[in-house]
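::Amino acid chain::
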Amino acid sequence: MNIHVKNNVAWVGKIDWELQKFHGNEYSTHRGSTYNSYLIKEEKNVLIDTVWKPYAKEYVENLKKEIDLNKIDFMVVNHAEIDHSGSLPELMSYIPDTPIYCTEYGIKTIKGHYHQNWNFHPVKTGDVLDIGNGKALVFVEMKMLHWPDSMASYLTGDNILFSNDAFGQHYATGYMFNDLVDQSELFAECIKYYANILTPFSPLVEKKIHEILALNLPIDIIATSHGVIWRDNPTQIVEKYLTWSRNYQENQITILYDTMWNGTKVMAENIALGIKKEDSMVNLKLFNISKTDKNDIITEVFKSKLILVGSPTIGKGITSATAGILEEIEGLKFKNKKACAFGCYGWSGESLSKINTLLEKSGFTLINEGIKCLWNPDNKSIENCKKFGAEIITSAL
């Protein structure tokens, strides 16, 4: 199947309706995904990216229906990660001498994946590949967005930016264009994608976007490598990225907790009551860490100005679910966010100090030392939790 994008450009990728996990088991894809590959037919025929390895044979067989493989003049690999380059070995078995254009680091990465010495042509920002009929591809390095090899390719004349992972989202849809899909679903997947994958590189995101804008290239379409193609007001997603890259936060407080015998859950719920009594307008959300998808949690942390993390003390530490989400949070390098800890304990009570240490290590500003409760909360402890929540609003924010 191909989908007409514009003039002589077609989508020749794969819609993966069944995908539930990505990056191994590191990223949840509740709405599936797409692997977007594009075929340009001008005087020279260009294939931009391929699809994930499990679909390689299907992809190549479908591609044969669109073009004689021997008539592909150039291949562009914007990013060597296997969800984009995974069909290269199958495809190159038919056309082993076809030139492959990618960054220098892309060559190293492709060789590292597939151990092949294909006909590589390294490119850098500003390099141009003439494809005839007055059109050309202009290459822009996108280092660390989100791998060292990443780049984008811009098609002159048609004004299409093939942005690879930037501006994409894991979203399976038969519509394929941003103006045709459910907008709430689309932007929910966009912010989740940014929060979980691009947050650590936010300073680079803003810098790179301004670098692209400085090229003064008109952009009519942004053709991503996952999810929809942006054709209606395509720069709206660029504007979102600029907003998200600037230490983003909303008027939201998120409470994360794990619990063994419900004591820490009771604390979470009563801290929440105190917060809402003091500030009815704040968007307050509670999540049981061990029962909630970790990527959905990360998205909510991304949107928050303050998070509270609660765990009972177990083995002089914290629960494995709490440790796991705090490990995720540390790697994402959130900025401009506050935090505090809470939890029940039986006889030693180390959970608060463990949580506080991990939050500080992750760059959060601690608003206090937290609150803990011996055994299961009694009426006095419950009132203290409510007071603790209220004080967060009145004195810490």
Q: What stands out?
A: The chain has a mean pLDDT of 95. The two ends are 53 Å apart (CA to CA).
